[in-house]
Each structure stands twice: as structure tokens, then as C-alpha cells.
Amino acid sequence: MRVLQLSILMSIVVIGYLQPAFSSDAYEVIPPPVCTNNLGETVVFSSRTSDRGQVAAGMANRDQNGNPVIYRVNYENATPAFQRFIDFHECAHHQVGHVDQPHPPRNSYDHLMNESIADCVAILRVREESNETYEAVIADLVDAMTQIGFPKVSTDSRLSNMKNCYTNYDSSNQFIKQVLDASST
Ligand SMILES: [Zn+2]
Are 146 and 155 in contact (CB under 8 A)? Predict the structure, then answer.
């Protein structure tokens, strides 16, 4: 009897462990930040829910009418701190004009550079506009990347880029201006 109880307990623990960290409780979905693209257009946020228990994600695009949009996917599975980071990251792709450029091949140098730029703008906006700590955002980002199955080396290089921006860079606006100036020459 005692053995049986223990094995039931252990299976509950294992099930609990196997479930994605964010899936057990839903978080409040925060209001989106202000987002304007490089052409001065207002970016609209739109919520999507896919399969339950999926990692929260965002996507920057134009909708079928050509309006700039950010799709917020499964945001109820992410903490408010991480929701805000995803919003800022996707907004950055609009702010520096990535959305209207041809999409570089996945994992190419240009693709990774675009992601580094978006991460940098996002973590600077966390520093400027939000109450969340750097550590809270990073902890959630590491959780999400681990769940999706990114190798540790990818996570580490992403974090070192963000730490450098957060510690050493001036304002997000100044950084965005540098990126726009560099891409127009
Ligand atoms: Zn991105």
C-alpha cells in the first residue's frame, strides 16, 4: 500500500515535470506597448491562441490589407515580463524596417543579425519603459528557449548580446537610428 502511494506520487511529480513550465496557469495578458514602424505607421497588435500549453511567441508582419501587425501567440502562457519583451522584440522588427525587407534564410548571418538587433532594442526598452528587472526577462527567455529545444550555445550568445546592449548602449531610439542610418547607405 505504501509502495503504491509512493509510485502514484512519483508519477504525479513526473507528469508535473514533463508539462511545459508555462502551461499550468494562465497569466493575465498585458496591454501592448506603443509601436510605430520606420515609416511612421502605427503597428496593431492581434492575439492568437494555438494549441494549449504552447510557448508564447510573437510574429511581426503585414496583414492582408498591408497594415503593420504583431501577432501575439499564446501570451497567456508567459509572465507579463516576458510578454512585454516579446512585444518589444517584434516591434523592433517594425521599427528598423525588417518587416518590409526580404526575409533572410533561416539561421543565416543576416537572420541572426536581425534577431540580435531586435533583442537589443527590446532589452533597451525594458530598461527604459518597464518595471521588470533584466533578470526576470532573462529567466523567462531561457525557459522558453529551453522548452523549444534551442541548444545552450544559442541561448548563451543571445544573452551575451542582450547583456552588452543593456549595460553599454544608449537609448533604444539612438540605437534604432544607427541601424536605420546603416541600412540606408
Ligand atoms: Zn525576431
Answer: yes
In the structure, ligand 1 is a single-atom ion and the residues with CB under 5 Å from it are 115, 118
Q: What is the pTM of this model?
A: 0.84
Q: Which three cell numbers stand for residue 13?
A: 511529480
**Any domain includes 4:** no
pLDDT of residue 24: 53
Other residues' Cβ atoms within 10 Å of the Cβ of residue 20:
15
15 located within any domain = no
Output the CA 113–ligand 1 centroid distance in Å.
10
Structural domain that includes position 111: 22-183
How many structural domains are present in the chain?
1
Distance 74 CA to ligand 1 centre (A): 16
CA of 47 to the centre of ligand 1 (A): 17
**What is the Å distance from ligand 1's center to 17 Cα?**
29
- Give percent of the chain with pLDDT exceeding 70: 84
